Amino acid sequence: MDLLLTHGYFLQEDAQERRLMKPYPPLGILYLSSHLKRAGFSVRLFDSTFQTFDAFRAWIARERPPIVGIACNLMTKRSVVRMIPVCRSHGALVVLGGPEPASYAEQYLDAGADVIVSGEGERTLEELLPLLTRKPAARDLGHVQGIVYRDERGAIVRTPPRPLIPVLDDQPFPDREAIDLETYLDTWRRHHGQASASLITARGCPYTCRWCSRSVFGETHRRRSVANVADEVEQIVDRYHPDMLWYADDVFTIHHGWILKYAAELERRRLRVPFECISRADRITPAIADALARLGCRRLWIGSESGSQRILDAMERGVTVGAVQDATQLLRGRGIQVGMFIMLGYAGEELQDLEATVDHLKRAAPDVFLTTVAYPIKGTPYYDEVRDEIDAPGTWSTRTDRDLRIRNRPGRAYYQFARRWMTAEVARDRYRRNGRRLRAARSAVSALVGRAGMALLSARPPTSESRLPNPESHRLP
């Protein structure tokens, strides 16, 4: 074994996901595995999703890999910080990658990591692995693009960024055979009656939303060819027989011509697998909605974020509230369910902005919406905007960017009441239109409780207690 690839997500430690039970495999390290195997390296994977931390510790002690590559994001940071010393205690070098480590390079290096990969990892690891097998005195990492490390004097070295992979069709498909994908599918079937498999058709997002991190794939948009994606879908269907697909692209319908050709190609191959995806309202037209329906789109998630145009403009979303409402009706008119992402607590948000969001949800009438409270991710413009107002509780190793507190913003309890008011108010409107008076009355009471809680808490002096709750899903009647 030249390298062990793993990640820091342990399902048993995620109470929110245990309620949902919709896990997907770690596509990032599966892409790394297939790339490195093709380059001649011996690679193994430890998929932590259904494992325990003790199982990981025992595996490292038994197998003693020479190098361990760990994928890390802000949600898995705490686990990764615990995994590093386990690997080091058994003689392994540790390489970190993913969207989180490069922004906190010094801290992760202090925690025991040897090298941090910034950006896409395939070609960087291909060049880096042979160098790491040499004795420390013989290593010269300075010419390897896209890494952060400490030199022999202890100084942090950041090498120039590595160019992004220009042609994604040249990359092999994710190494799904390296993990127990059947466990993912069985988990879905056991909890939801159907199994879902994931894939991506593109990398990168060219939009400029101020709160969004683009630290791995950059701000460009690189899309695989229609035939290449169709080949992967065909392989997934023939090998694993999922009931549905999850296209995990940031903006699935960004390229209209591609979507239309893709729909035609899958029709030619007689492939029609129900799926969910994410897109933007301004990338939904009647022709695209028709194509999505032909492809089998079951639900499309729209990053609505707010019903206040003032807040959308502050986020630099580049979309209007009206466009979101229009796109929702286009999709629902073709039998496609609509989910919405709503972000509360963005800088400058006031009560009238929340009221505008409630009105927006009533008008758009999505099938489900997901709320979260805005949190500043280091490396984004939003983080820089609120940097001077951030309180960082605890120690670096025990907190994530989700735990950062923003002074002079309402606390956690306020947004819990806001969610209650928002959900109940939208539900009351839906029940009224459906003639369900008793349920509408109950929702009205719940909305009053939520609004009263908001009023009570907003009357108190602001505190630094703004720890951010996990996202919550609100399915409408």
What CATH architecture label of the domain at 3-158 applies?
A: 3-Layer(aba) Sandwich
Strand content: 15-25%
Strand order of the largest sheet: 2-1-3-4-5-6-7
* CATH T-level fold name of the domain at 3-158: Rossmann fold
The assembly state of the depicted protein chains is single chain
| CATH superfamily caption of the domain at 3-158 | Cobalamin-binding domain
Helix-and-strand structural type: alpha/beta
Q: Please tally the helical runs, counting DSSP H or I stretches of 4 or more residues.
A: 16
CATH class of the domain at 3-158: Alpha Beta
Distance between the termini: 53 Å
Q: Catalogue the unreliable spans.
A: 463-470
Report on the biggest sheet.
7 strands, mixed
> Roughly how many Å is the radius of gyration?
23 Å
Count all strands and give the number. 18
* Global outline: globular
Mean pLDDT: 93
